[in-house]
């Protein structure tokens, strides 16, 4: 009989987050157990991925395991979590008197659940009220990092969150909910300490039915978290250690799943690596990401998947930062050299470079990442994902409003439109 591992998600942090992880037993068994035994709740509401609900038995398995403690289910959310779409779910949860929320699916579902628990606590019932709570306050606008910070604003969330992820995005490990404005198509980050998950349940068997391209994409996103952590303008040694461990689990694990998609050990390793990749968001001060995230957030509403934004942008941003190292706030060349050393220490990665006929001695970290992403079958240009030059102007302007633009090692400030365009040109592919 399998044994459950049940522990804090980030036990080595000086101040661990409240999130715990469970793995080793089936997701349905774990969820049903913890709803009643750990959280003492009796009316669980499930928000589930549409594709998973239609194409697999997993939603039914979860509902059956919950039994009389199942209050209701909502199926499907648009990618990139449009704020307006959350309102009917909020009202349904309230009508069914649910006392705990479970997300079953990828990052858009998890982000939606986090925003919903804040909206529930603040009596949101209409689209107008939802738009009001995600409208930037004067305090939001006054901060350099223009996140929609809601700590101390309104009521704190009270409904516990259980996340059962089917991808490697890592959204389940942070208190941030990315959501999109339906009018401007700009994506913002809403946050409150009460939006941390109470529990994340990992089950590699559940992920086998995740579309393979989505699985690999989300793994690339987790790689991006690790790489921009190590090269951050405010990098921290403890986060570096976690990011390096994460890369050693993520990349070999993804390469093994390319060879054998049924390899459950490799899948669990990538899940554990994705958790470590999120350490940067769970320390104080938070380790800030750079332009791969800052521009990538704004590619999402243009229809580009999370991982595709990273595999296109991350190698180019690394090269851009290295070529402009004299303008950086940190020793970006030393950080990138360290990152390259970590990557090449893995035999599977060194093998990828040899296969691609890349000189290990003379290549830079952007070359290493590009070779890995090529091996994983990911796109390299905006043209490949349908983003033409007609979108570059809006993309550049929205990117400069993203909280991770000014925290790029080579800062992208309000008047740095041309710098963003320079990065976009690197990945245009004659878009």
What report would you give on this structure?
Residues 19-204 form the Alcohol dehydrogenase iron-type/glycerol dehydrogenase GldA domain. It holds the Pfam family Fe-ADH. One of its GO terms (molecular function) is alcohol dehydrogenase (NAD+) activity. Keywords: Oxidoreductase. With 431 residues, the protein is α/β, with parallel strands linked by helices. 46% of the residues lie in helices and 11% in strands. A seven-stranded mixed sheet has the order 1-2-10-7-5-3-4, sandwiched between helices. The protein has a three-stranded mixed sheet with strand order 6-9-8. A hairpin with a 6-residue loop joins strand 8 and strand 9 (187-191).
Q: Determine the strand fraction and express it as a percent band.
A: 5-15%
**β-strand number:** 10
Order of the strands making up the biggest sheet: 1-2-10-7-5-3-4
Number of domains: 2
Task: Indicate the mean pLDDT.
Answer: 95
Oligomer: single chain
Tell me the number of helical segments per DSSP (H or I, 4 or more residues long).
18
Q: Using the 3D structure, state the CATH architecture of the largest domain.
A: Up-down Bundle
Question: What would the keywords be for this entry?
Answer:
431 residues, alpha/beta, Rossmann fold, Dehydroquinate synthase-like, alpha domain, 7-stranded mixed β-sheet, 3-stranded mixed β-sheet, 18 helices, 10 strands, globular
């Amino acid at each position: 009989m399998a044994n459950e591992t049940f522990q804090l998600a980030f036990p080595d942090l000086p101040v661990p987050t409240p999130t715990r992880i469970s793995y080793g037993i089936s997701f349905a068994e774990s969820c049903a157990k913890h709803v009643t035994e750990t959280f003492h709740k009796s009316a669980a509401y499930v928000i589930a991925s549409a594709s998973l609900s239609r194409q697999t038995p997993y939603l039914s398995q979860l509902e059956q395991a919950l039994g009389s403690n199942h209050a209701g289910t909502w199926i499907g959310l648009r990618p990139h979590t449009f704020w307006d779409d959350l309102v009917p779910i909020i009202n349904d949860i309230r009508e069914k008197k649910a006392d705990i929320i479970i997300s079953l699916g990828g990052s858009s579902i998890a982000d939606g659940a986090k925003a919903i628990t804040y909206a529930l606590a603040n009596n949101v019932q209409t689209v107008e009220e939802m738009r009001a709570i995600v409208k930037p306050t004067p305090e939001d606008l006054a901060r350099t990092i223009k996140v929609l910070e809601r700590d101390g604003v309104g009521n704190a969330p009270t409904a516990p969150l259980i996340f059962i992820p089917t991808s490697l995005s890592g959204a389940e490990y942070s208190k941030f909910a990315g959501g999109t404005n339906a009018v401007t198509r700009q994506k913002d980050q809403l946050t409150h300490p009460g939006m941390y998950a109470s529990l994340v349940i990992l089950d590699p068997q559940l992920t086998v039915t995740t579309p393979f391209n989505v699985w690999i994409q989300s793994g690339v996103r987790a790689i991006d978290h690790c790489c921009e952590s190590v090269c951050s303008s405010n990098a921290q040694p403890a986060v570096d250690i976690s990011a390096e461990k994460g890369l050693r689990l993520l990349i070999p694990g993804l390469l093994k799943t390319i060879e054998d998609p049924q390899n459950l050990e490799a899948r669990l390793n990538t899940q554990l690596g994705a958790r470590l990749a999120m350490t940067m968001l769970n320390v104080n001060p938070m380790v800030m990401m750079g332009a791969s995230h800052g521009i990538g957030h704004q590619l999402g509403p243009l229809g580009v998947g999370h991982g595709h934004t990273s595999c296109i942008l991350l190698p180019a941003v690394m090269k851009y930062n290295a070529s402009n190292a004299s303008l950086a706030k940190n020793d970006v060349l030393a950080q990138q050299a360290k990152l390259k050393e970590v990557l090449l220490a893995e035999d599977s990665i060194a093998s990828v470079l040899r296969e691609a006929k890349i000189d290990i001695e003379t290549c830079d970290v952007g070359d290493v990442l590009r070779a890995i992403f090529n091996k994983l079958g990911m796109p390299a240009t905006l043209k490949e994902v349908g983003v033409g030059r007609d979108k570059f102007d809006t993309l550049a302007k929205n990117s400069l409003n993203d909280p991770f633009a000014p925290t790029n090692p080579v800062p992208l400030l309000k008047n740095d439109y041309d710098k963003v365009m320079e990065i976009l040109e690197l990945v245009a592919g004659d878009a």
